[in-house]
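For this section, I looked closely at a protein sequence along with its fold in token form, which I now present.
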Amino acid sequence: MTPNPKPAFPRRACAAVVLATLAAPWPALAQQERPSPVQVTRAEVRELAPSVHATGIVRSRAAADLAPAVGGRLQWIAEPGAAVTAGQVVARLDTRELSLARAEQVARVKRAQVNLEALEREVVRLRASGNAVPRFNVDQAQSNRDIAEADLQVARAALAQTDDQLARSRITAPFGGIVSDRVRRAGEEVARGEVIARLVDPDELEIRLFVPLRHVRAVQPGATVEVVADQREFTSRVGSIVPAGDPRTQSFEVLVKAPPVAGLLAAGNTVQVRLPLGEPQRRLSVPRDALVIRADGLYVVRMNPEKRAERVSVKAGVADGDWVAVDGTLQAGDTIVVRGAETLRGNEKLDVVGVFEAEPKRLSLDKKTSGA
């Protein structure tokens, strides 16, 4: 029995199906173009200055390691954190041995005085005797008197030295401040010149930072700098510069005045400092995030009146904070893309979802606000 052959599909019907399929509306093509969400701002002319950023350490301008001028047993020492005034006693040594030495030297001074007075009277008596006493005896008496006078001076000098040691047994604060560290404790034997405590003035502060040596001639005393401490930004001034560079780190030291605002800074804080390296220049500027770097160069994306993306080639110049000077066909007032420019190739429809906010105004701690 022969099986029935399969019915052949007509070629005309197959072609009709293909044509019908191509004629049908494709869903992806039917969709409208989706605009790209971007954040924008306007190119503007700003005063920019070249600058360098450095990390600084806040330290006290008045800090001292306290050490006794004489050795001995430490009798008492102030606790860490104690506030002291200039001249106030911070530590005392046991002075019993020195007190005994002083008593002995007082007695030696008195003995020398008595001896000198006796010899003075002897010289006067011999001189009054006239020719009855040989000249040799008078000269001998005068020599003994002079030796006794010298012995008295030696005894008085020894007594003064002991009094000075007694005075130095009390270690006083050279300036008002806070005892930051107690190195030795009461009852311990300490040697002369051995550090027993540290004193700092928490109100007289400065910022110490190291700047690359190539900028040594660009940073000037009195220049205004920007400091960021604990997420607060303010301005201050360069106090002094140590132009001698360190050959190992290729840097030099800059000291910045710390603002007199209570609670803002403390010794040991780490802060960020921006130092200007030249006079400000008025330049056409864009935010740093608006620059797109590619292998073929640097460009920004401008939004045209039809709200479409346009690539504009630029050259970057001076940078100041979040803003960078640019040269190119860009003009002040042009709307440029700050966020979302990396994915744009050109002519895309743009949807503005936000406006870039410029840097906030900095807190200037000058004479008008320093007491606030």
About this structure: Residues 13-24, 26-30, 361-372 have pLDDT under 50 and may be disordered. DSSP finds four helices and 24 strands in the chain.
